[in-house]
Amino acid sequence: MIHNPNREERDSRNVLIKTFGCQMNKLDSELVFGSLIKEGYTLVTDEESADIILFNTCSVRQKAEDKVYSHLGKLRKYKEERPGMVIGVMGCMAQNEGEKILKRMPHVNLICGTRMFSRLPELLDEVNGSKRHILAIDDDATVDFDRSVAQRPNRFHAFVSIMRGCDNYCSYCIVPYVRGREFSRPREDIVNEVKGLADDGCKEVTLLGQNVNSYGKGLGGNGHFSKLLRQLDRIVGIERIRFVTSHPKDMSQDILEAVGELPTVCENLHMPAQSGSDRVLERMRRRYTSTHYRGLIEMAKTLVPDITIAGDFIVGFSGETDEDFLDTENLMRDVRYQNCFIFKYSPRTGTDAEKFVDDVEEETKKRRNHRLLELQEEISTEENSKRIGKSLEVLVEGTSKTDNQKLTGRTRQNHIVVFDFPESGYPVFPRTNGQAGDPSLYIGKLVNVTIEDATDVTLYGSMDSG
Ligand code: SAH
Ligand code: SF4
Ligand code: F3S
Tell me: the pLDDT tens digits for 21-79? Predict the structure, then answer.
């Protein structure tokens, strides 16, 4: 029987959730936060005051899993001192490793797979006070997209899941195995959610999916993603729409036209190439060539003036030669990405690439990784410097981490900007009692900032005062 503590007992339960991995995990953590708060739990940010510690985990590379094991290992002593506490692992690694986690880390009490997180409140009730270990993994469970109880850290920004899972089975990738089949959420549900967010003061949404360009596949007809963008663009109150991730094999002209035409859709694409070599792309089973990719970039730059592009690359994939790597360097140089995530290939158990030999030596992977980082840094610095002297629209996110007298936010093109705000106050928020403007008044607002300096990751400037 499920042990069901009463509300009072629950009220004393403090929960800490540590999130690893991609934006999908961030969103899932927010959904879990929301449902736990509704049940009377309190969220805390430090281990000392937590009665329940949940790790929302990633399996995409071995290093991601090692990191979680190392964190879990550190909690062993903690658990000995406070045997009543609950340590849970949820997300992709819970799905991937399952019982193995319990074997290696017996102090873990709860494993909750990627399609079971909406049952967490119930599972915590079950585990609470009992000495049992609970393993909740179901490959066939469906995920409820409902966010009526989500807790978003920023009132003015929200992640919105438009699809789940992935059907692409790129040969190196574990995501389809841990996240399940691709499933698109009905368009009306997404639109209603975004309307609700707008009513709640949200200004910017980031649509999430492993391959948003194939949104609506299986529903018949074409152009589902661009139709979704067009419908969302009409929602009053939403100023900016972003989306990740774009897959080159499903990117199309109608999507790029929508990005170019719709005022709310930001001029930024995250469209990973993974490699510039056709031989490697084929072994990765990406289903496009570098020529096709270059064509898409050209089309994007034509249809969306001032677009910025972010990418991902894997270096040292099985069989990658110096010549293949040169193709990647050339692609990076030609596209002139705004920023790139560069990963050393990490073989994953159960994927198709596991049967290839991981034959690129660690030293070579490191060298190639370093080379791409260096090249990207050079490109980013040059591209960012082109913004100096320009006035750009910034959505203010908060005060800068390194200087609370400065504000930080993002441009439509997704540059991070750190900037001064006028001491004499901004016209919209005049100074009160002769004090300098309160930075918090600007948070969540769109302001214009003139750029004065740039590094590879940040633009610096001052807010325009008129
Ligand atoms: N759906 C997204 C990517 C999700 S995974 C897409 O297809 O673009 C995020 C990134 O992790 C991938 O783009 C890839 O660059 C990297 N990645 C995935 N599996 C990997 C592996 N086995 N080793 C190294 N990097 C990997
Ligand atoms: Fe992984 Fe490929 Fe799916 Fe992206 S599209 S999640 S890389 S299988
Ligand atoms: Fe994301 Fe990592 Fe899972 S990249 S989908 S959290 S394996």
Answer: 999 999 999 999 899 998 999 999 999 899 999 999 999 999 999 999 999 999 999 88
381 and 419 part of one domain:
no
Residues in the chain: 466
Higher pLDDT, 78 or 215: 215
Out of 19, 32, 59, mutate this one to test ligand 3's pocket (max ligand atoms within 8 Å of CB): namely: 59
How many A from CA of 277 to the centre of ligand 1?
A: 16
CB 351 near ligand 3, within 6 Å: no
Of 344, 362, 385, at which residue does a domain stop?
Answer: 385
Q: DSSP state, 436?
A: P
- Quick check: CB of 164 below 6 Å from ligand 3? no
CB contact at 8 A, 44 and 11? no
149 part of a folded domain: no
Domain termination site, one of 87, 102, 136: 136
Q: Spell out the residues 6+ positions from residue 397 whose beta carbon is closer than 8 angstroms to its own.
A: 154, 157, 408, 409, 410, 443
Q: 10 Å Cβ neighbour count for 257? A: 15
**Mean pLDDT, residues 109-128 taken together:** 91
CA of 180 to the centre of ligand 1 (A): 16
Q: Of 251, 155, 280, 249, whose CA–CA distance to 205 is shortest? A: 155
Residue-level pLDDT at 439: 81
Ligand 3 contact, 307 CB (< 6 A): no
Ligand 3 centre distance from Cα of residue 60 (Å): 6
Domain that holds residue 189: 157-385
* φ, ψ dihedrals at 58, nearest 5°: -125, 145
Which residues lie below 8 Å from residue 326, measured CB to CB, with a gap of 6+?
Answer: none
Nearest of 348, 340, 349, 432 to residue 379 by alpha carbon = 340
Same-domain pairing of 185 and 314: yes
Ligand 3 proximity of 198 Cβ (cutoff 6 Å): no
